[in-house]
Fold this protein.
Amino acid sequence: MTSAYWAVDNSLAMIGRSLRISARNVEALLMAVMLPIMLMLIFVYIFGGAINSGTAYVNYVVPGIIILCAGFGASTTAVSVTHDMVGGLIDRIRSMPVVSSAVLTGHVVASVVRNLVAMALVIGVGLLVGWRPAAGVTDWLAAIGFLALFMLSISWLAACLGLLVRTVDAAGGATFAITFLPYVSSAFVPVDTLPSWLRGVAEHQPITPIVETTRGLLMGTPIGSSWWIALLWFGGITLVAFSWAAVLFRRRTA
Amino acid sequence: MDAIQVQGVSKSYGAQQVLTDIDLAVPAGTVFGLLGPNGAGKTTLVRILATLVRPDAGRASVVGHDVVTSAFEVRQKISLTGQYAAVDELQTGRENLVMVGRLRRLGRSAASRRADALLERFDLAEAGRKLVKTYSGGMRRRLDLAMSLVTSPPVIFLDEPTTGLDPRSRQQMWAFVRELADAGSTIFLTTQYLEEADQLADRIMLIDRGVAVADGTAESLKVRVGGERVSLSFASPAAVALAVADLDPVASTATSVTVATNGTAAEVRELLDRMDKIGATVDKVAVHRPTLDDVFFALTGGGPR
């Protein structure tokens, strides 16, 4: 058996662990299920009436809610990484002949799975409250693949933030930016309704091209250059977060 | 052959010197006890030997492999049971063990068999399918130790394995440690309990504030403090102060003074007369043979902090 084989087997063992723990963490699970539903209902029935997006608001907002939920999912991921770091388990694993990335890979994969489940819920609830996507099968597959890449990149970012902070409480706060950015983007309102100084921020931050690409794939709105800008953001965030996490993981507690 | 060698190891965190010039050698197949109060640097030394922390100076090796330059080889030869039970609350005992087995490259089915055998041995067979969050402190420690033994490594580090355990669980842990020692493992144990070091360790090193203050067998350390002792308890701090000034105590606390004695009634009587003369009223008298506690307090300078 080669070391590559064992690196994969180690990662699989840790993915299984993180998935089991996710499924048994009742509070986080409840939050993950309730949040998409509540957000959908709040945006569609409470804010939606006052927002003029040029179309039925539910048709505008679904991609934004998927991304908002992924942001909250990232905070769960950061918290569970920090939890591992401050508990003794990481010391045990770091004192074993194990590829150090296996632990983080477990967290990240479980995070992507949790986010995909949350996404399925958003889509389901969206359809129930009147969302009518215009996407064909290929558009759907492309959208899901695209969102999975987004979830992968913010999960690595969350893992990185989880390594950076020293307490479980701080881990939730560290992901604040990820949960906040969607509000300053085209996720909930068209960017041209924002004051001009804020419009600059909204147009150049990563969430806007991500939302626009998702909306384009699902609703048939124009995508333009959004898709490759979004992919560049994914690649950049994943690369930086992954390398940084690897360094932090080795150095942390040393 | 020495399973563990440490030469001139020092470590500081910022301005705080945690370890100063530690030298030690642990022959293969023996139990080494590192004894010291909280904050003495015990855990830091274990972490250095377990490749988690780099020393600032000096060298350390485990089974011939340098802990800094050959960390991966060292990790194949050791297991670490940390001070806090390193177990996943939301996994069952069995899942925790299988996870470690797979990380240790046993493969899925061998890891499962090994998990069942260890659950049996550590008296967790029934609890094995329950989530660890339902376990008692003693069960967690047993699981923690079992997780360290998944691949029977030749060198085992136990960092304060019984801190916080009730007396029965402690006895049980001691029995497991003795079993491991009998099976030929080299065990490096840290503890703040003198009795534990006395019970388990072949050789003991006392450290205090990062400095090794003594080492040897439990017996040789006791001999260093001399023969029998008599402890005098006083009613007031003033009396203690008088006694300390008058006598040549080997140890003293806020309420008592301990001096060397030959254990005869005549000598004790003389001592009490002397205390009467200086006006220090003695409450109680106790004569005892030296224990590691005496060694500890004598060598680390005075009473408990």
About this structure: The two ends of chain A are 31 Å apart (CA to CA). The mean pLDDT of chain A is 87. Chain A touches chain B at residues 1, 6, 9-10, 12-14, 16-17, 20-21, 24-25, 87-89, 91-98, 102, 253-254 (CB under 8 Å). The CA atoms of residues 153 and 235 of chain A lie 7 Å apart.
